[in-house]
């Protein structure tokens, strides 16, 4: 599963936030997948690996932002439901 994001406008005003964290949870399968050491803001793309076994499953997803030193971490934001 590939999740994309565009943070160029946001990052002009928030320079300390340099990476992302993503969580995808399937309530039907009761399983979660995450990326905690997310992409740097310059790459604007994150890859979340989910085994093909779960193809067709719906995942609720959240995103949050983090500084390199892990001292500043945002509250997570609900992204929505993604069908894999």
Question: What does this entry look like structurally?
Answer:
The chain is built from one helix and six strands. By secondary structure, it is mainly β. The strands form two sheets. It has a four-stranded antiparallel β-sheet, with no helix packed on it. Strands 1-4 form a two-stranded antiparallel ribbon. The longest helix has 6 residues, at 8-13. The protein is elongated and about 35 Å long. The termini are close together. The mean pLDDT is 78.
Condensed summary:
This protein has about 80 residues and is mainly beta. The chain contains one helix and six strands.
- Look at the helices and sheets and give the structural class: mainly beta
Total domain modules: 1
- Annotation field: number of helices: 1
Main sheet strand line-up: 3-2-5-6
Largest sheet: 4 strands, antiparallel
The first-to-last residue Cα distance is: 7 Å
- Sum up the overall morphology in one term: elongated
The helix-strand sequence is EHEEEEE
Q: Care to count the β-strands?
A: 6
Helical coverage, percent range = under 10%
What structural keywords apply?
two-stranded antiparallel sheet; elongated; 84 residues; single chain; four-stranded antiparallel β-sheet
Task: Produce the secondary structure layout.
Blueprint: E1 2-4, H1 8-13, E2 17-26, E3 31-35, E4 45-47, E5 58-67, E6 77-83
Antiparallel strand pairs: 1-4, 2-3, 2-5, 5-6
């Amino acid at each position: 599963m590939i999740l994309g994001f565009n943070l160029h406008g946001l990052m002009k005003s928030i320079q300390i936030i340099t990476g992302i964290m993503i969580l995808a949870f399937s309530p039907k399968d009761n399983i979660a997948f995450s990326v905690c050491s997310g992409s740097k803001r310059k790459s604007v793309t994150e890859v979340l690996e989910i085994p093909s076994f779960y193809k067709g499953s719906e995942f609720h997803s959240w995103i949050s932002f983090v500084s390199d030193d892990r001292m500043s971490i945002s509250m997570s934001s609900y992204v929505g439901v993604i069908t894999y």
